[in-house]
Amino acid sequence: MSIAEADPIIRFAVMTLFPEAFSAVTEWGVTGRAFQGGICSLHLQDPRREAVDRHGTVDDRPYGGGPGMVMQAPILAASLEKVKTAIGSDAKTIALTPQGQKLDAPLARSLSTESALILVAGRYEGLDERFLARHVDLEVSVGDFVVSGGELPAMLLIDAIVRWLPGVLGHESSAEQDSFSEGLLDCPHYTRPEVFDGDRVPQVLLSGDHAAIASWRRAQAIRRTLDRRPDLLAWEQVTPEDRALLEKWDLLTPDGGRHS
Ligand code: 9D3
């Protein structure tokens, strides 16, 4: 008799010239536990295996000239075929590209309901447009800055998705994810010692008054979001109730109540 091994909730595959790099997500921390525990799985496919010359070439010079090299469509298509044989042809194919839809919590959460995802991580200047047009369902970017390839963005996407899978986070942190998706920054955190360099932990956190603590934390979250992320929260959106909360905790001025 054997103990039944449940199927993974989500199967990932990544096409990458650097498959070894993905141990960062499969072996460490919260995502490491999810992969080791079988909640999710990862198939790695190196497009170099589809190269047809003895040097293992997967890229060529861009038509029209210009800097850099472009990953070749036939190589990528052959590699994708192998991936689909391995994890199933029903999988959605996502390329990590600087031109893609910007990753945020709603996108990660929505992708976490897929049963299989194929991620294509490019190197060099990019992927031949005909591969993207024919085989890729969605392009995802991790933000408006340049990194050296699609691997770190792919790992970031996997991490952001896996955290939404049931059983990956404890109940408290799951609720925390919900609150971030609700659109406020987190409140400040403190642990021992009570005094550090003459700087005391806010008295309310030592009071044992859980309603007061929740009220202070919400006021702090609103204040910090107003100060640091006007794109997430503008003054005009603050309700009279939240304004009263800021008043109660002396946070109506932008210096966070640190003024004398
Ligand atoms: C000169 C134009 N550059 C595009 C912005 C060239 C270029 C830079 C970096 C082409 C590819 C790359 C490699 N980056 C990614 O593959 C990538 C990426 C990124 O650089 N920023 C944010 N999200 C992503 S997802 C994949």
Could you explain the architecture of this structure?
35% of the residues lie in helices and 17% in strands. It is of the alpha/beta class. It has two domains: 153 residues, SPOUT methyltransferase, trefoil knot domain (Alpha/beta knot, 3-Layer(aba) Sandwich); 67 residues, Trp Operon Repressor, Chain A, CATH 1.10.1270.20. The strands form three sheets. It has a five-stranded parallel β-sheet, with helices on both faces. A three-stranded mixed β-sheet has the order 3-4-7. β5, α4 and β6 form a beta-alpha-beta unit. 27% of the residues are buried. Ligand 9D3 binds next to β5.
Short key terms for the protein model shown above:
10 strands, 260 residues, 5-stranded parallel beta sheet, alpha/beta, binds ligand 9D3, Alpha/beta knot, 2 domains, Trp Operon Repressor, Chain A
Please outline the helices and strands.
Layout: E1 10-15, H1 23-26, H2 29-36, E2 40-45, E3 59-60, E4 70-71, H3 73-87, E5 92-102, H4 105-111, E6 116-121, E7 126-127, H5 129-135, E8 138-141, H6 151-162, H7 171-181, E9 195-196, E10 199-200, H8 210-228, H9 240-248
Parallel strand pairs: 1-2, 1-6, 4-7, 5-6, 5-8
Antiparallel strand pairs: 3-4, 9-10
Helix pairs in contact: 3-5
This protein binds ligand 9D3.
Query: Any idea how many domains?
Result: 2
Terminal Cα span: 72 Å
Order of helices and strands: EHHEEEHEHEEHEHHEEHH
Q: Strand order, biggest sheet?
A: 2-1-6-5-8
